[in-house]
From TrEMBL:
Specifically catalyzes the decarboxylation of meso-diaminopimelate (meso-DAP) to L-lysine. Homodimer. The modification N6-(pyridoxal phosphate)lysine is found at residue 79. PROSITE patterns: ODR_DC_2_2. The keyword 4Fe-4S does not apply. InterPro entries: Ala_racemase/Decarboxylase_C, DAP_deCOOHase_LysA, De-COase2_CS, De-COase2_N, Orn/DAP/Arg_de-COase, PLP-binding_barrel. Pathway: Amino-acid biosynthesis; L-lysine biosynthesis via DAP pathway; L-lysine from DL-2,6-diaminopimelate: step 1/1. This is Diaminopimelate decarboxylase. Its cofactor is pyridoxal 5'-phosphate. It catalyses: meso-2,6-diaminopimelate + H(+) = L-lysine + CO2. Pfam families: Orn_Arg_deC_N. The keyword Transferase does not apply.
Length: 441
């Protein structure tokens, strides 16, 4: 998390988040709703996600492809934010779902997303998960390996069904993002090597009656903020499509994956028009059905995590200790990720004041949200918002240190709703049982 670059000022953070503003005594407001009021009503830590922001970003992405006259089927990456309320908002915007587990598939269906609009990716699909996908006749299963292909073909034939599939290609391209979220290099666990595709494609079309092979899929990584890897990856897919067709094989669908990044700190993150331009330039003339799988770009700026200052500790550094921890938002501990932090009260000076480390209460040295961050003076009881927490926040939270899961609130214009109530410690303990032999005298 340390960097030689200066932190963006609070005003810069506000400029980069048009859904946030300070309104006098109301303090920090998100899409018209006072976050202080929400923290007071629902306590902290507390997740807040804006349906309005989610909708606006969904439409902005769709508009970018319309501007290029490029019909694209959008499937939201459920792993980024899996709450059914969020999935429902996106389904109403015309989005399908990209799922990576049987649980996510069930969530998408429960949220009203049609089975034919669901794509199932992921390297570790179990037989039960594949059977679930086959039974519901979902739109597409992205096959990640030869071994999975054989299992899927056998299961579909046994069920007297035919599964619609695409091969996920590993193009051996570095996404130029964090190593832990890069997925398209040869050494990564995902996909089938691009040079193995032609022979496997032919064998599948001739020898595997349980599957209907429609095309190719690719996903290079997450939080990608430069055009180059996208262009290089899609050019490799386009070349592969032409090779397959030259050898008499049909390709009707290309799943372009996701990965479009956002400016958490001061990254020069591209707009969705960049992605639309690259896809149009590289794949637009192939006459295929195109799919994209955005996740972070839609959800992250739509959500914040609210926390309250427990104490300010004066030591070798000044530590601002908050009641949210790495069990709530694990990204900084896992990826060294940077999240903007704003006080909920209107600051007198938006250029920053104290230099502090913002840390959580978890008994781990990695439970740190910010190192040497310039922030307005904070004291016990003050409220803060961790920004861009709408993706990979709630979905990755845990009950580590016996900390119950935090509440989650959705706002939508003048409306608000508690969409996940705070878990109680009694509920957490109720999930456990003690073997009889430990309780018998």
């Amino acid at each position: 998390m340390t960097s030689t670059r200066p932190d963006p000022t609070l005003q810069t953070l506000l400029n980069n988040h048009p859904n946030l503003s300070y309104e006098g005594d109301r303090g920090l407001v998100m899409d018209g709703t006072s976050l202080t009021d929400l923290a007071t009503q629902h306590d902290t830590p507390c997740w807040v996600i804006s349906a309005d922001t989610l909708r606006r970003r969904a439409r902005a992405l769709q508009d970018a492809f319309r501007a290029r006259d490029l019909p694209v089927h959008c499937h939201f990456a459920v792993k980024a934010q899996d709450h059914q309320a969020c999935l429902t908002v996106l389904a109403q915007c015309g989005f399908g779902a990209d799922v990576v587990s049987g649980g996510e598939l069930r969530r998408a269906l429960a949220a009203g997303i049609r089975a034919r609009d669901i794509v199932f990716s992921g390297i570790g699909k179990t037989d039960k998960e594949l059977e679930l996908a086959i039974r519901h006749q979902i739109g597409q299963i992205n096959v990640e390996s030869v071994e999975e292909l054989h299992r899927l073909d056998a299961l579909a034939r046994k069920m007297q069904q035919r599964a619609r599939i695409a091969f996920r290609v590993n193009p051996d391209i570095d996404a130029q993002t964090h190593s832990k979220i890069t997925t398209g290099r040869a050494e990564d666990k995902f996909g089938i090597a691009h040079d193995a595709i032609p022979a496997l494609y032919r064998k599948t079309m001739t020898d595997m009656p349980g599957v209907e092979l429609v095309g190719l899929a690719v996903h290079l990584g997450s939080q990608m903020v430069t055009e180059g890897p996208f262009r290089k990856g899609y050019e490799r897919i386009a070349a592969l499509v032409r090779t397959l067709r030259e050898n008499g094989m049909s390709v009707t669908d290309i799943d372009c994956g996701g990965g479009l990044g956002i400016p958490y700190r001061d990254e020069q993150a591209p707009p969705p028009s960049m992605l639309a331009d690259v896809i149009a330039d590289t794949l637009g003339d192939l006459g295929v059905r195109l799919h994209v799988e955005p996740g972070r770009w839609l959800a992250a700026p739509s959500g914040v995590l609210l926390g309250r200052v427990i104490d300010v500790k004066e030591a070798a550094r000044r530590f601002v200790i908050i009641d949210a921890g790495m069990n709530d938002l694990v990204r900084p501990a896992m990826y060294d990720s940077w999240h903007g932090i704003l006080p909920l009260r209107t600051p007198e000076d938006t250029t920053g004041g104290d230099v502090v480390d913002v840390v959580g209460p978890i008994c781990e040295s990695s439970d740190i949200f910010a190192r040497q961050r310039h922030l307005p003076p904070l004291k016990k009881g003050d409220l803060i918002a961790l920004l861009d927490a709408g993706a990979y926040g709630t979905v990755m939270s845990s009950t580590y240190n016996s900390r119950p899961l935090a509440a989650q609130v959705m706002i939508d214009g003048q409306r608000q709703a508690l969409i996940r109530r705070r878990q109680t410690l009694d509920e957490l303990l109720a999930q456990e049982t003690i073997p009889d032999w430990l309780t018998t005298p």
